[in-house]
Specification:
This protein is an alpha+beta fold. The protein folds into four domains: about 1-160, Roll (DNA Polymerase III, Chain A, domain 2); about 175-260 and about 275-285, no CATH class; about 290-360, Arc Repressor Mutant, subunit A, CATH 1.10.10; about 365-435, no CATH class. It has eleven helices and 26 strands. The strands form seven sheets. The chain has an eight-stranded antiparallel beta sheet, with helices on both faces. A hairpin with a 5-residue loop joins strand 6 and strand 7. Helix 3 (about 160-175) packs antiparallel against helix 7 and helix 9 (about 365-375) crosses helix 11 (about 420-435).
């Protein structure tokens, strides 16, 4: 499902023989030059390339391809951030241009999204080392100024599943730490040696070996999950600019898990977060669903939004809530398109996605289905756990497990099923009633 956005520009895009300017509606969130235009242009093209790529395609999707969407752009406190998801929603790409990567003329917080068509990508790919790159982010568009081309771009609808994807990436990365670091030479060798073919579509492990790493099919102590080398290989064109490559994951994780691979570039960072398996999209994960059950999480999220509105970046400790409540409030904000998490700096950041408020405030589908079960009085709690009537079937829920086919297939790796969620909602309600 997508949300249609109608855009009216106050002026036309203009160009001459040496530059292009895409019309930007006011207010202007950002205007300035990239101090490192060549790596910035290549990284920006890669973010767009990820949005156009499907790394995994089951047979059922061949005839029903989902339209690619283009980068979400956020301006904040002298920085710019470009983000996208792959068509399969299993890869999240983010380019962070930090203070020393930008010559800022104007900056104010704001978020939009734009459609980078092939002409823009060609202009970015043709940028030479001495060419300037100017970026202007408006409420409904982004202006790009180089020495090449005449272009007109327009805002495009964003898939609603991106809201879920952004929230799930945040939850997946919140408790990650650096688990692997490679210097410039080792990083380039690692990316160049990543295998393709069938092995590139499987989960393998990056195993430290001497000054570098090697790829192994089985986990060994200290190894880092690489959920599809064919997905990670997309970073190869940026390796020549990188000064380091770091992986951020769950420490001592022995099972496949989400990992953020971060290339340090002149003036910024390029992050590529891979879902735990090539066949899994972030929008289908359920890592934040338990945090969204209680109405207290929404109330805490509203208070947190007001208290930290002037902080471009913040940590869990800044919420002044105890850890469990703070985590739930941040999960609520992430699930509803308001915050993200930067693993490299270990901070949360504001990013209000450009969707209508009713879309942002809606519960994820699995949680909506659970609430419908509760409203239909389909959950009965007894000494053995809970009995849930779903359609014509009856399932038993006990200790966070369910007898339904969904949990038989996925276990707890993708979060709770709707029956477990419905039981948790009933349990929370009963607890609140006892405490009153």
């Amino acid at each position: 499902m997508t949300t249609e956005i109608t855009v009216t520009y106050r002026s036309e895009s203009t160009a001459d023989g040496r530059s292009m300017y895409l019309a930007a509606d006011s207010p202007v969130f950002f205007d300035g030059f990239a101090t490192q235009p060549l790596p910035t242009a290549r990284a920006l093209a890669l973010v767009t390339q990820v949005a156009a790529t499907r790394f995994y395609e089951p047979a059922s999707m061949i005839a029903a391809r989902i339209r690619a969407a283009d980068p979400v752009v956020t301006a904040e406190d002298g920085r710019l951030r470009f983000e996208s998801f792959s068509r399969c929603a299993g890869v999240h790409a983010r380019l962070d241009l930090v203070e020393d990567g930008l010559d800022v003329r104007e900056c104010a917080p704001g978020t939009t999204n734009v459609d980078f068509n092939p002409p823009v990508l060609r202009a970015l790919s043709h940028l030479a080392g001495s060419d300037p790159l100017r970026l202007t982010v408006g409420q409904d568009s982004v202006a790009v100024q180089t020495f090449e081309g005449t272009l007109v771009e327009h805002q495009v609808p964003l898939p609603e599943r991106w809201v879920k994807g952004f929230g799930e990436v945040q939850v997946a990365l919140t408790h990650t730490v650096p688990v692997l670091e490679l210097g410039q030479t080792a990083a380039r060798r690692f990316l160049d040696a990543l295998p393709g073919g069938d092995i590139g579509k499987t989960v393998v492990w990056a195993i430290p070996s001497g000054a570098g790493v090697r790829i192994g099919r089985a986990f060994k102590p200290g190894a880092v999950c690489v959920a599809g080398t064919s997905r990670l290989r997309i970073l190869q064109p940026l390796a020549r600019f990188a000064t380091a490559l770091r992986a951020y994951g769950r420490p001592h994780a022995t099972a496949p898990s989400a990992v953020a691979w971060v290339l340090t570039l002149p003036g910024g960072r390029m992050s590529l977060t891979l879902s735990p398996e090539p066949s899994r999209g972030f929008s289908g994960e359920g890592g934040l669903l338990f945090d969204l059950i209680s109405a207290k999480a929404e109330r805490d999220a509203d208070e947190l939004s007001r208290a930290l509105a002037r902080h471009a970046r913040f940590r869990l400790a800044d919420t002044r809530l105890e850890a469990e409540r703070g985590t739930a409030a941040l999960s609520w904000l992430g699930a509803h398109g308001h915050v993200g998490f930067d693993a490299a700096e270990q901070v949360f950041f504001w990013r209000h996605l450009p969707y209508p408020d009713d879309v942002l405030r809606a519960d994820p589908p699995r949680l909506r289905a659970a609430r419908e079960l509760v409203a239909a009085r389909a959950v009965t709690v007894d000494e053995r756990g809970a009995r849930v009537i779903s359609g014509t079937a009856e399932y038993r829920v006990s200790d966070g497990r369910c007898t339904c086919p969904w949990m038989a297939k996925h276990g707890t790796a993708r979060g709770p099923c709707k029956h477990v969620l419905a039981t948790a909602i009933v349990d929370a309600s009963r607890l609140e009633q006892r405490l009153q």
